[in-house]
Amino acid sequence: MDTAKSIPAVRVKNSKRKQFRNSRVLLLMCLPAIVFFCIFAYLPMPGLYLAFVKYNYTDGIFSSPFVGWDNFKFLIITGDLWRLTFNTVAYNIAFIVLGNIAQITVAILLNEIRKKWFKKISQTLMFLPYFISAVLIGLLAYNILSYDYGLLNGILRSLHLDPVKAYSEPHLWPFIIVITYLWQTTGYGSIVYFAAIMGLDSEIVEASEIDGANAFQRIIYIVLPWLKPTFIILLLFSLGGILKGNFGLFFNLVGANNTALYASTDIIETYVFRSLMTNFNFSMGSAVSLYQSVFGFVVVITANWIVKKVSPENSLF
């Protein structure tokens, strides 16, 4: 009986070894990513204890006084946690929704271009903003929005209109930040959708043309349904970072110490930066980062569960 039971186990073991041998090239390709996440994501995890202590340089992380949830309570009482959460989530929702709409639109428009040389030139020009440094983007924005020397106020003064104090007006910055983000990322983000459209069976498109479907109908009834799985996967990936702000964009556009704009531009990343570099409050910064990670994990699991209920074939796991 024991021998009979051990045979399936041996077969399973041999099957796993065979799968490992057959997949060794793929595993080797994944090795750099695995090493990266082990070093930068898993090894630093014991440092999360920093969020529950009142850190000081003399005692170190694990010998500093343990304060439990006091760091989180302070964030809640001061209202910083709700402001940071709202700003970060609101901006990311705008980035995800408007960004995907813009990327899908650009990908479809590129697919409709018949001149190959014009399509290549258009793609190249749209990719360029993504490779521009955030520092340079901040400099360009300052040269446009500066009260004394900015291009915008120069035009307004020439028209005998009142100049705009952009860096003192919090209500203007959600529009400025979202427009800048779309300008920088739309061209690059459209690559995935454009590649998905390229995988569409040309016979289906030709059949629709024979049946008399115009370009708009092909887009509505063929292209968009074809892009649905790609959109759902990218959406789930994006939701994982819904509480992770674009630090480079916000820091270089707004700056870390412009208190007049905190109400509408302060996100978790800029708050953590100030906590670490200005206030030297490592415990508070760690508490916010831990909250950010747990929130993102819950959002991804919840979103994937909803997708699995509605459309199981499009869920991540």
UniProtKB/TrEMBL annotation:
A GO BP entry: transmembrane transport
Domain ABC transmembrane type-1 per the UniProt entry, residue ranges: 85-303
Keywords, ordered alphabetically: Cell membrane, Membrane, Transmembrane, Transmembrane helix, Transport
Keyword Repressor annotated: no
Gene Ontology CC terms: plasma membrane
Pfam families xrefs: BPD_transp_1 (PF00528)
Transmembrane annotation, as ranges: 25-45, 89-113, 125-145, 172-198, 219-243, 289-307
Localisation: Cell membrane
Record-linked Gene3D superfamilies: MetI-like (1.10.3720.10)
InterPro entries to which the protein is assigned, alphabetical: ABC_transporter_permease (IPR051393), MetI-like (IPR000515), MetI-like_sf (IPR035906)
Chief place of localization: membrane
Source species, domain of life: Bacteria
Membrane-topology annotation of the record: Multi-pass membrane protein
Family per record: Belongs to the binding-protein-dependent transport system permease family.
Protein name: ABC transporter permease subunit
Organism: Paenibacillus kyungheensis
